[in-house]
């Protein structure tokens, strides 16, 4: 992981100057403020700011729904009720701002979550560092033969060495040419906004990413899942650890109902009822496609 001297100085100054405040403070998140958590070979995630805590979710829900929630006996129970019944706006009262350093190809996957505010390091104005994501050998995998979006067996021996060599050589060569094209040695050179087109997708970029808790949970449900691509999943896992300390009651409900729960279609519910009644239901008699049946059976293995 590489932090610039300016970033390190900013972190040290911020942590050395705590401020008294009347706003809600989450002690669990305070310990994460400004600290950089290492991810991949050169990446990191660090909390820049946050707003709200578990009590903010409860407060918003009671303002919104009034007497409709009085039967819920405590704050944790209310939060679980909101999560269980797919309420969203109370969770939007909490926000998190992160500073993330990540490979460009991971950023392009991440940015598909269009429910956040993003400000990315600009290669039009600045020169990107010579830092590339090079996978560890255990992350070098062949294309899956059953899933066009997934990985298959790990590459071994000479084949793994060949792929690693290509990744390193191509990244270094592309950056060398990037530097040569820039006007750094007295030549006219190429504009930075054009020279950047030659950079590989594994070069590192940085951004500030601000998101509310409802949409953050949606991001984590998809990207912290075991089926998500490893290179984005490790960022999601790091964020999960921070969120768990920030809003423990909400995160516990999220783990239970979203990460650990199962959503069933109407046909899936009917199959389950028939099986509980003792009927021997097959895919052919279920009315479900092979894919739907496979996913239903996998949920209860």
UniProtKB/TrEMBL annotation:
Keywords of the record: FAD, Flavoprotein, Methyltransferase, NADP, Nucleotide biosynthesis, Transferase
A molecular-function term among this protein's GO annotations: thymidylate synthase activity
Binding annotation for FAD: 89, 112-114, 120, 212-214, 218
Positions that bind dUMP: 109-112, 120-124, 196, 223
Note describing how the cofactor binds: Binds 4 FAD per tetramer. Each FAD binding site is formed by three monomers.
Enzyme type, top EC level: transferase
Chemical reaction(s) catalysed: dUMP + (6R)-5,10-methylene-5,6,7,8-tetrahydrofolate + NADPH + H(+) = dTMP + (6S)-5,6,7,8-tetrahydrofolate + NADP(+)
Family to which this protein belongs: Belongs to the thymidylate synthase ThyX family.
HAMAP family in alphabetical order: ThyX
Protein name: Flavin-dependent thymidylate synthase
